[in-house]
Amino acid sequence: MSEKVVILGSTGSIGTNTLEVIRQHPEEFTVVALAAGTNVEEMIKQAKAYRPKVVSMATKEAAEKVRFALDDSIQVLYGEEGLLEVATYHEATFVVSAIVGSRGLAPTLAAIQAGKKIGLANKESLITAGHIITEAAKKAGVPILPIDSEHSALFQCLNGERKQDVQRLIVTASGGAFRDWSREQLVNATPADALKHPNWSMGPKVTVDSATLMNKGLEVMEAHWLFGFPYEQIEVLIHPQSIIHSMVEFHDGAIMAQLGSPDMKVPIQYALSYPKRLPLSGEPLDFVQISRLDFRKPDFVQYPCLKMAYEAGRAGGTMPTVLNAANEVAVEQFLAGEIPFLAIEHKVEEALSSHQWIPHPSLSEIEEADRWAREFAKKIKIAHV
Ligand SMILES: NC(=O)C1=CN([C@@H]2O[C@H](COP(=O)(O)OP(=O)(O)OC[C@H]3O[C@@H](n4cnc5c(N)ncnc54)[C@H](OP(=O)(O)O)[C@@H]3O)[C@@H](O)[C@H]2O)C=CC1
Ligand SMILES: CC(=O)[C@@H](O)[C@H](O)COP(=O)(O)O
Ligand SMILES: [Mn+2]
């Protein structure tokens, strides 16, 4: 029987890669519902090609344009209500959560509570409300299958192993667009510079997060929530080639690593078809051509966002929520040309140090902390950066 798939964020980088995996395996997967923001043209193309039963757009205006282009057999919804309807669509068995940012939290939680298997790319929802998502998944008895490449790698390396035999998780980082830039050079870094990721083609927000290494900080927290290890057992290692996607070291000194070309279709395929593996088109990894793999330790002075993420993760409660929300606002402002690159870390730092920490927040307290951090981060003046 085929998996009935919903994609939240279908028009984005993860969304389009997911549709490509599905296109290569029509016998395994059927697309039943899609949700996106405002990319009308891409949604019309996808709806015509995959014939879902329902689609939803972020705004009424976008939905009307999509509806105009499709026949009546595809229902077109919009707004928060439409998104939740798609996330919990009755026929769906598997929901790919690939909206960018913590706005992915509500639909991801709703999909879990509706008993859908989750393929999780939207790391921000897990950072923002880790205990709420993991408890909801446990209660509903649904698996959260990682799509993020490092977590897919860790998931594969941990397969069949006992947790108590693990020494540490080693999360690899490319170092992002500014891997070889000095702090002095970063003062003048532009959005165009930050968007030149050395290895991966991704959406703008995660690409900027790669450049600050906030992405790696978020991924350390993501690993904590997905696999249940304390922060002391989760390390980051800079690996410029992005060939080793992460590793697990065991107490006997053995290390398991998952390798592959930097192609998100591989972890997406693994999440969708777990525990099977399906063939994918693409060139096999050529070790002779790669010839070497390099590593170095990340430096907390060079990458304060990584340091703040470890601290926020260890503090727990509402600190990760605030870190994530302030970062989302700052990245958006940077991409809009409103603030310099180094103001991102400055805004996150200010928000964390001004926040009234709540140790065991409810969902509404998380939503309130997220709202507070966004407003606070927007208002921070950056003249002295
Ligand atoms: N790209 C990658 O390779 C990887 C991404 N991730 C994570 O996956 C998530 C998605 O990243 P990525 O695909 O790169 O991002 P993109 O920016 O490429 O895509 C974001 C998607 O979210 C949709 N969206 C935005 N706002 C709304 C809204 N209000 N309602 C509904 N949908 C909305 C966009 O729709 P529209 O364009 O129509 O406005 C788009 O489909 C992020 O959390 C990222 O960290 C993790 C690992 C790798
Ligand atoms: C592809 C993927 O999973 C991204 O999250 C990736 O990790 C970005 O690369 P770096 O953050 O290592 O630069
Ligand atoms: Mn990743």
Automatic annotation (TrEMBL):
It is an enzyme of class 1 (oxidoreductase). 1-deoxy-D-xylulose 5-phosphate binds at K123, S149, E150, S174, H197, S210, N215, K216, E219. Residues 144-227 form the 1-deoxy-D-xylulose 5-phosphate reductoisomerase C-terminal domain. NADPH binds at T11, G12, S13, I14, G37, N39, N122, E124, G203. Its cofactor is Mg(2+); Mn(2+). Residues 5-130 form the 1-deoxy-D-xylulose 5-phosphate reductoisomerase N-terminal domain. GO terms for biological process: isopentenyl diphosphate biosynthetic process, methylerythritol 4-phosphate pathway involved in terpenoid biosynthetic process. It comes from the Bacteria. Its EC number is 1.1.1.267. One of its GO terms (molecular function) is manganese ion binding. Mn(2+) binds at D148, E150, E219. It catalyses: 2-C-methyl-D-erythritol 4-phosphate + NADP(+) = 1-deoxy-D-xylulose 5-phosphate + NADPH + H(+). Signal peptide: none annotated. Coiled coil: none annotated. InterPro entries: DXP_reductoisomerase (IPR003821), DXP_reductoisomerase_C (IPR013644), DXP_reductoisomerase_N (IPR013512), DXPR_C (IPR026877), DXPR_C_sf (IPR036169), NAD(P)-bd_dom_sf (IPR036291). Residues 259-375 form the DXP reductoisomerase C-terminal domain. Catalyzes the NADPH-dependent rearrangement and reduction of 1-deoxy-D-xylulose-5-phosphate (DXP) to 2-C-methyl-D-erythritol 4-phosphate (MEP). Belongs to the DXR family. HAMAP family: DXP_reductoisom (MF_00183). This is 1-deoxy-D-xylulose 5-phosphate reductoisomerase. It comes from Thermoflavimicrobium daqui. The lineage of its organism: Bacteria, Bacillati, Bacillota, Bacilli, Bacillales. The gene is dxr.
